Structure formats: C-alpha cells, structure tokens
Amino acid sequence: MNPARRRGPPTGLRVDLMIIADMVEEGSRVLDVGCGDGMLLAHLSRAKRVDGRGIEISQAGVNACVAQGLSVVQGDADRDLDAYPDDSFDYVILSQTLQATHNPRKVLECLLRIGRRAIVSFPNFGYWGVRWQLLLRGRMPVTDTLPENWYDTPNIHLCTIRDFIILCREIGITIDRRISVTHEGKASVFHSTGFLANLMGEQGVFLLSRNAR
After folding, report:
1. What domain range includes position 97?
2. 189-193: long-range contacts, CB 8 A cutoff, minimum separation 24
3. Which of 68, 92, 93, 150, CA to CA, is 20 to 30 A from 22?
4. Strand, helix or coil for residue 63
C-alpha cells in the first residue's frame, strides 16, 4: 500500500497527515494549502476545533470539501498566497505539495508570512529506494510516494530531506521539529542534517517558524 496514502485507525488519515494533525494546537486558525478532498481539515475541525480554511487547485477537490461543509476556495499556491495578509493564521499546512510548486522558495516564505507556523511534508528524493532505482536502472524512479512516470508527474522540484533543511537555513526559517517517515509508516524524530533520516525516510514532515528578528 502507498504509505503516502496509507490510512490507519482511528482517524483514517495518511501517516503524514496524522503527524501534522498532532502538531496543530486546539482551537487554532489553520490554512491548508493543497487540501485535496479536505480529509485533514475535516479531522482538525472535529478533533481540534480549529478555525479551518483551505486552498485547492482542482475543482473536484473543492467540490468534495464544500460538500463536507468546509471553507475551501479554488486557488494555486504559486499565485494566490500573495493575496493573504501577514499573520492571518496560526498554522499554514502544505502536505505533499511543495515539490509540485513552480517556486518552492517563494511558497515557503509565503507560508511563514501569513502563518505564525508552517507544517510541510514531502516525498524524500534521498530515500534509499529512490537511489537504488537510479543506480540499477538508470531511470527516474517510480515508488509508492512518487507513483507517476517522469512524463506524467506533477512533481517539478523534487528534493531530499537534506536539501530542505539547507533551504530553510538559507532563507531564515527555524525548524522546530523534523520527522522522517519510513516506507512502513514508522515516524522518527531526528536532529541536525539527519544523515540516516535522509537515507531511510520515504517522507519528511517539518514544523517551521520564523527566525526571531
């Protein structure tokens, strides 16, 4: 089963979404960017009583969210985050979407302009299974978290866990919590550059905040 979509009791959420939900404080103002069918927002509304909003690029996703009574608009992370004022939310969430944006650096900066904190998850291109396929086959890998062929994928800016950590350092983002998720769905907190996390983690999940000025 695809661990990026693996569901487990009692929430029915993907593994990375369960981790994200645990990071959100009760009663917070939350914006979920690329919220898909709204499963995370719906869970946060029920379990954490958040004031939740969402942006989703696909009309089908927006329709699914609205059908659940969620406040979601159609929009694009690369273009529409500029319209949000500073400090509009306590948390801005970007799950499994960063690699599909045209300007990941700008998107990250926007997340932490409009939110007090940001939570980001993405497939790790440094995962050993990805490296193994490149080494043995000499072709772009197809894995559970990267299921499309290179010519069909929406992913245009794949990165490793280490790449992400370095980018955060370069643009002045503080990493408050860093978690790697294995192929089996096991989550592990790691520190520093996370050599083993970068090798063994199929996904990375990060809680971010702005550096103090």
Report:
1. 15-208
2. 193/162, 193/165
3. 68
4. helix
Q: Which CATH number does the domain housing residue 66 bear?
A: 3.40.50.150
3 within a domain of the structure (yes/no): no
Reported confidence tier of residue 165, pLDDT bands at 50, 70, 90: very high
Q: How many CB atoms lie within 10 A of CB 1?
A: 8
The helix or strand, by DSSP H or E, that contains position 112, with its residue range, turns out to be helix 104-114
CB contact at 8 A, 119 and 17: no
Q: What does the alpha-carbon distance between residue 193 and residue 198 come to, in Å, rounded to a whole number? A: 8
Q: Establish if 213 belongs to a structural domain.
A: no
Stretch 5-20: mean pLDDT, rounded?
Answer: 72
Is the pLDDT score of 213 beyond 60?
A: no
Q: ∠ CA 164-3-148 to the nearest 5 degrees? A: 75
With 0.85 as the threshold, say if the pTM is over it.
Answer: yes
Q: What is the CA angle 190-168-106, rounded to 5? A: 140
How much is the pLDDT for 194?
A: 85
pLDDT band with cut points at 50, 70 and 90 for residue 36: very high
Determine the 3-state secondary structure of 115 from DSSP: strand
Span 111-119, average pLDDT: 97
- What is the number of other CB atoms lying within 10 angstroms of the CB of residue 58? 12
- Beta bridge partners, 138, equal none
